[in-house]
Design goal:
Blueprint (H helix, E strand, L loop, with lengths): L1 H28 L4 H15 L9 H6 L8 E5 L7 H4 L7 E5 L7 H12 L5 E7 L3 H8 L7 H15 L6 H18 L4 H8 L3 E7 L6 E3 L2
Helix pairs in contact: 6-7, 7-8
Length: 220
């Protein structure tokens, strides 16, 4: 009888452990991910004009002088109308931001994200496109870009090609397609990011910023 009780307790403990692990995994990958919620709550304050401007006091600057622990990585466009710390109402040390026109990636950008994940402990990455993106519009218009702008067009062209097969506004569809492609590129970037995603320790999502009303929407 005693052995049966011990065995039963062992089964209950195992089930409890699995339940907790499942809940943690679900929390990490669900829309209610705490890091995502923190970003969207901040964006809601921005949209409503009720920004709290957190983590911007002198004491915060002093705290961060020797180390940093950003809770999220934002891969954003360089567009001056899309500053992540402002539209998410965050402060010093909260976000690790990579900004290139068209929110595209190169080796240096991916290496920066790997650093944030592998060395700074970031567990959430958001690729943020935005309405009426100039880099995407330039790619849609075509023509011969001058100087190094051609490298931007080349990176975005596959998204434009994909958007041409979809109904609706070509630029809007291309913006979304470009975000989705960058998300996929990061999820399959070996070894650091791909392994982190597979282990469930890293979430990578795509989102879109609306220039007109200031809101950020998570893309499917």
């Amino acid at each position: 009888m005693k052995e049966k009780v011990i065995s039963l307790l062992g089964i209950i403990a195992l089930v409890s452990f699995c339940s907790v692990f499942s809940c943690n995994t679900k929390e990490l990958s669900s829309p209610e991910n705490p890091n995502q919620k923190k970003l969207l709550d901040g964006n809601r304050r921005f949209v409503e004009g009720k920004m709290s401007h957190p983590d911007q006091a002198a004491i915060r600057r002093t705290e961060l002088a020797k180390s940093q622990n950003p809770f999220a990585v934002i891969v954003s466009c360089s567009d001056s109308r899309v500053p992540p710390e402002v539209l998410f109402d965050q402060g010093l040390g909260d976000l690790f931001v990579i900004r290139l026109a068209g929110n595209i990636l190169n080796d240096a950008a991916i290496g920066s994200i790997e650093y944030a994940v592998d060395h700074l402990g970031a567990k959430y990455v958001m690729v943020l496109g935005h309405e009426r993106c100039g880099a995407v519009e330039a790619t849609v218009k075509g023509g011969e870009p001058h100087g190094h702008i051609g490298s931007l067009v080349k990176a975005i062209q596959p998204a434009v090609d994909k958007a041409k097969t979809q109904e609706g506004d070509l630029v809007d569809n291309a913006v979304n397609a470009n975000v989705s492609m960058v998300v996929q590129q990061l999820k399959t970037s070996a070894p650091i990011l791909e392994e982190s995603v597979k282990k469930g320790s890293l979430v990578i999502v795509g989102a879109r910023y609306d220039l007109d009303d200031g809101s950020v929407s998570i893309l499917p």
